[in-house]
Amino acid sequence: MDILYKIFIDPFMQMGAAPDLLVQALWEGLVGGVLYALIALGFVLIFKASGVFNFAQGIMMVFAALTLVGLYEWMARHGVPAPAAIALVLTIGVMYVLAVSIEKFVLRPLVNQPDIILFMATFGLTFVLVGLGELIFGGEPKQMITEQLWLPKGSIDMKILGGLVSLQKIDIAAAVIASAMVAGLAVFFQSTRIGRALRAVADDHQAALSVGISLNQIWVIVWFTAGIVALATGIMWGARSDVSFALEIIALKALPVLILGGFTSIPGAIVGGLIIGVGEKLGEFYWGPLLGGGIESWLAYFIALAFLLFRPQGLFGEKIIERI
Amino acid sequence: MTHHRSDDIAPGDILLAVENVSLAFGGVKAITEVSFDIRKGEIRAIIGPNGAGKTSMLNVINGFYNPNEGRITFAGRTRPRMKPYEAASQGIARTFQNVALFKGMSTLDNIMAGRTLKMRRNFFWQALRHGPALDEEIEHRKFCEEIIDFLEIEHIRKTPVGKLPYGLQKRVELGRALAMEPTLLLLDEPMAGMNLEEKEDMSRFVIDVNNHYGTTIALIEHDIGVVMDLSDRIVVLEYGRKIADGTPAEVKSDQKVIDAYLGVAH
Amino acid sequence: MKIRTLALATAAGVALATALPVAASAQDAIYVPLFTYRTGAFAGSGIPIANGMSDYLNMLNERDGGIGGVKLLIEECETGYDTKKGVECYEQVKGKNPVITSPYSTGITLQLIPKAAVDKIPMLSMAYGLSASADGNIFPWIFNPPATYWDGASVFIKHVADKEGGLDKLKGKKIGLIHLDAPFGKEPITLLEKLAKDYGFELKLYPVAAAEMQNQSALWLGVRRDRPDWIYLQGWGAMNPTAVKEAAKVNFPMEKLVGVWWAGGDDDARAGADQAKGYKSLSFHAAGAEFPVIKDIQKFVVEKGKSQVDKAKVGENLYNRGVYNSMLIAEAIRNAQKITGKKAVTGEDVRRGMESLEISEARLKELGMEGFAAPVKISCSDHNGHHKVYVASWDGQKWTKGSDWMEPMKDKVRPLLEEAAKDYADKNAGWPKRTEACDKAS
Amino acid sequence: MFYRETGQYKTTYAADMAVFPILQDRIALGLMLLAVAVGVPLFAMLFPATGNYFLQVIMIPFLIFALAAIGLNILTGYTGLMSLGSGAFMGVGAFACYKLTTIFPDVPIVIWVVVSGVFSCLVGVLFGLPSLRIKGFYLAVATLAAQFFLQWCFVRIPWLFNYNASGAIEVPERTLFGLAVTGANATPLARYFVVLAVVAGMTWVASNLIHGRIGRSWMAVRDMDIAAQLMGIQLLPAKLLAFAVSSFYCGVAGAMMVFFWYATGAEPEVFSIRQSFFVLSMIIIGGLGSLVGSFFGAALIYIMPIVLGAIANWSGAPISAATIEHLRVMLTGALIIFFLIVEPHGLARLWQIAKQKLRIWPFPY
């Protein structure tokens, strides 16, 4: 009986007793969710346009952030003026070079191979990026250059609900940037020539080819876009702790997000991210202590699994009818 | 050499009865109130224009889709819902419009896979692959070699089927279905995409199967000439409805069929 | 099928294996392997330590021509904090007559503990590894000075008591332990639970899974809910800077957040920027570059380009910890030379040297380490010494001394520790009885 | 020239169905077995220093990883079910073996090593259940759930590690025929023999399963699950069986890893997601759906870095250990991509091609 009380009643009593903490927990969940969603977003972009399950998306995030900070540190040490801005531009350049190289050396030779082979290739890419990143920038964790990038710091503390709710400005910035990015992508997809081409590719490779769109270009653009998303994610997550390859494991959380949202839906990635983020924070905070805490490492996967059993196609995926 | 589980049904009696079957996906109706039967030992053709619901009909018969309405009686047993593997164990085999072979496996393994239901040795013996399991494997291998001989595909026995030309793949697929020693064999466009010579070969195999093994066959085919030559009776579908049913001669002279094929406006 | 290639691989492997242990000729050098990790998820903490360890020993070679006139052959083996590579490193160095090993990973340490006695290679797990291995009667080949995790936790409690106004003031207080959810992180729980019972404070546990090191916000919400008065942080790698940042976020008073010595990296604290001011960490040596020994390292090694260290990072807390670690090794070797009268000492000699090691204030001064560390004394039964520890405090730029040297609660730690050691020996049926004779301290 | 099958007529189906139908292959297999069962040990006895290094650093882990790779290959390569949880299943085996041998210390350890696979097998089936509804990459997430949840259990359930203060498995000494096979006193040679026997036996069993009805039904599910159902293969039982056998192999590999390779102790972190990735990269490089490939993959992924390190050491190039490690990681990744481009079916396929060339040599075709 006691255990039932602890599972079904007590957490809700706690929520009622300290609404400020509930709001705070929801907020933390949303922020975490936005970051998961951003990783998932880069992933969805690539999957939509090239059908590749890009296992390396998480590493691209670390790699981008590491490049940014590494370049900044190097330039700051050598007295280059406005190092942050230049580093940002250069990093975007590096992500472009990365996209071109991936297209040239990985995707193009593997065109028309089964999905699993392409997945494995991105698995290999993960190792290459880890090795390359550490080789160039060293294995030490680095400080994210939050202030230099004109990101706000400090927090907004609100004394409400009989307590304190504290919103970090950097988290707000993350949410704003994420929304701007999603909006930007939506505009890009809807109203630019390239965007329409991308959608055509997503629908049908053959059809896209027949209207004269180069698949190779499209892939470069998609991977580059995903690289930019990765950079933004890397900056945000780096600001929360530091920039190091330990982040790689956290990036795996994007997978349950994708399961929820479906592999091809951008709104799905966002909503899925928020559900996972909020779900795991509330779960850890209110129900975690029943198991001694630390359940966050697997909770997200279980949430996704539970959803999956009821909706195998994800929240926004279309129902799959098997054609024979 | 065949030991059907429907031995009690005499040749000429009804083996499969489809009664008032309807099937819809979402709002789209694929089959509407179709009834027909297949008699033991005959070659029954299902024809109709594209999108007439022929393949859906086969899918209903072997349990991929469960009909929204109507019922299906096979070998005297009526079933409300059924899974494909149950259909398989009742003796219904099938080939596909777009070849559905196990591409990573050799011809022999594909055909041997058709023997799965007939193999009884448990996991333990399989793990040892000696004694009973090996004997069983050899026994079934013999059976499959007969099919391989019959279909004249000895030379590609060990070739992965993914590397075979289309015509041969179709033949292997037929072999795999035959390996199941089916009571009812469903062939979905067995001659699609073949040249004349290949079609003749395939027709010969279909007739031989029917004669030699006494297997009842239901086939979908677009080549009207072939259908007329091969089949005992023909059912014609259009837009998911049955528009004609009878011998080749009867169907050939049916006005609705002529309209459907010549595209007369309704 | 597989045969040919496997045969080929075997042949290649054989050729390789024969080529590998290029045995350091025992005559002209003392072989000191260092297990380090400059890669992987924990590289952030591993790199400064690796630099400190290498640089001190290199400095001895450059400045003094080794120890007692014998050159040191120093070799790093990269473990990546991965036990798989730990095995490989151990086997690689085993054949080259190492005088001591220092695995620098709890996982590798646990794995090597039983092997040390068999292979006659002593192991120094300096203030990490298995606390129970401090019992020299059961673990004659393992040394973990200057303090165990249990000593650390007890000093933390003493520090709390100091600030709160006495041990009796602990009653009713709430103390949180944020720990890595792994054997290393869970180590202090046993002692803190006992102290909680003895002093009447409440212990709250906040585990952090290794995969979630950088995702701690739910945990810190828990801190806000439970409102612990003090928090002890048993963390490592990326977990520490994240914890410091999160603490700042929830306005937890920094001076009440105390890390174990492994949570005292400069990068760990720097992550919190000026908000981290006041963050504390236990330590058993000083930070900073103003000591003669560090100056010598700069002069003989760093300036000559013989180090991988970033010049600005010489003298950082974890760098100095590497230096301290190597100093213990060097002193043990020196002591072994003194006891045995041999120049080229072996692992067995260094075990004896370690066991009768005594580093006095005077000796520290000779070493250029006056004020750098507290004196160290190791005995046959006590392979740790439970030496004094102090609380370092981050001033926003660097670590400063935030308290006096404090004696651990040896009376609480030692019985628990001996019990744990006995338990270890009992569970490992056939654990060898100590047969090694005991040298008197020299 | 010598590698010809011409003239080797098979007169029975049994002969034709043999796993190694060609005489030269059988001879080579015999020689190979002789080499690993007699040659290697002899070498180790004659040159104990290098021999022990060779056994402990190369042969024992190579065999154990090959076994784990076979396990994963059964699931991912043969049945087409993606798994990122093999590391955790290895852990289940290791912890099960530890519990069993500490509760019943008198039963020979080899028995417990094999029985521990049964526990891993049960857990594997449990986490395989979602495969009924979930396919492809989605299933990878179910296995990730297993990975993280099981790892959490290894740390959190103190009963699993006998409440040891170290929080880790402390391997007690166990003997076989009076000879220590676990613990610090067990010689690499003794451990090698045990590992070799288990791996050889289990490889033989895996080969039997794969070449029979069960293997065919796995591959049928992988290649075309719809058609497989029409052959009377029920998907869920077939997939669960794959999960069961795969986890069994991984579990035994995990138990052997802790008891016969590490031989003294292991903390839960050993069975982290990185271990899963490690084994996965082996089967990618070695070849999905190939037993030989599992050995090739284990050799390349596990032994290659050691060789690289040794070469760097031996050449005396002024490269730091860390740089070597970084290069090694990069090289592993590059090799994965390279092999996928050159031959998506891995080293095993390249090996077949090489054999084919050898067969017709000196003619080009």
Key attributes of the depicted protein:
heterotetramer; A: 324 residues; mainly alpha; ABC transporter involved in vitamin B12 uptake, BtuC; 2% strand; globular; C: 442 residues; alpha/beta; Rossmann fold; seven-stranded mixed sheet; two-stranded parallel sheet; 15 helices; 13 strands
Structure commentary:
- The complex is a heterotetramer of chains A (324), B (266), C (442) and D (365).
- Chain A contains 13 helices and two strands.
- Chain A is mostly helical.
- Chain A has one domain: Orthogonal Bundle (ABC transporter involved in vitamin B12 uptake, BtuC), CATH 1.10.3470.
- In chain A, helix 2 runs antiparallel to helix 12.
- Chain A starts with a helix and ends in a 14-residue tail after the last helix.
- Chain B folds into two domains: 161 residues, 3-Layer(aba) Sandwich (Rossmann fold); 80 residues, no CATH class.
- In chain B, helix 3 runs parallel beside helix 6 and helix 5 crosses helix 6.
- The radius of gyration of chain B is 19 Å and the shape is globular.
- Chain C is α/β, with parallel strands linked by helices and 442 residues long.
- Chain C is 43% helix and 13% strand.
- In chain C, the strands form four sheets. Chain C has a seven-stranded mixed beta sheet, sandwiched between helices. A two-stranded parallel sheet of chain C has the order 1-2.
- In chain C, helix 2 packs across helix 12, helix 5 packs parallel to helix 7 and helix 12 packs across helix 13.
- Chain C is globular.
- About 4% of the residues of chain C have low confidence.
- Chain D is globular and about 65 Å long.
- Chain D contains 14 helices and four strands.
- In chain D, helix 3 packs across helix 11.
- The interface between B and D is medium-sized, with 40 and 29 residues.
Write the layout of secondary structure elements.
The complex is a heterotetramer of chains A (324), B (266), C (442) and D (365).
Chain B: E1 14-25, E2 28-39, E3 43-47, H1 54-61, E4 69-74, E5 77-79, H2 84-90, E6 92-94, H3 107-113, H4 123-128, H5 132-151, H6 166-179, E7 184-188, H7 196-213, E8 216-220, H8 224-230, E9 233-238, E10 241-246, H9 248-252, H10 255-262
Parallel strand pairs in B: 3-8, 3-9, 6-7, 7-8
Antiparallel strand pairs in B: 1-2, 1-4, 4-5, 9-10
Helix pairs in contact in B: 3-6, 5-6
Chain C: H1 3-19, E1 29-36, H2 43-64, E2 71-78, H3 83-94, H4 106-119, E3 123-124, E4 142-143, H5 149-164, E5 174-180, H6 183-186, H7 189-199, E6 202-208, H8 217-226, E7 230-234, H9 239-249, E8 257-259, H10 266-270, E9 280-283, H11 292-302, H12 317-340, H13 347-355, E10 358-359, H14 361-366, E11 376-377, E12 390-394, E13 399-401, H15 410-427
Parallel strand pairs in C: 1-2, 3-4, 5-6, 5-7, 7-8, 8-9
Antiparallel strand pairs in C: 9-12, 10-11, 12-13
Helix pairs in contact in C: 2-11, 2-12, 3-4, 5-7, 12-13
Chain D: H1 13-17, H2 23-46, H3 48-78, H4 86-103, H5 109-128, H6 136-156, E1 169-170, E2 175-176, E3 179-180, H7 188-210, H8 213-223, H9 225-230, H10 235-262, E4 265-266, H11 273-286, H12 291-315, H13 321-342, H14 346-360
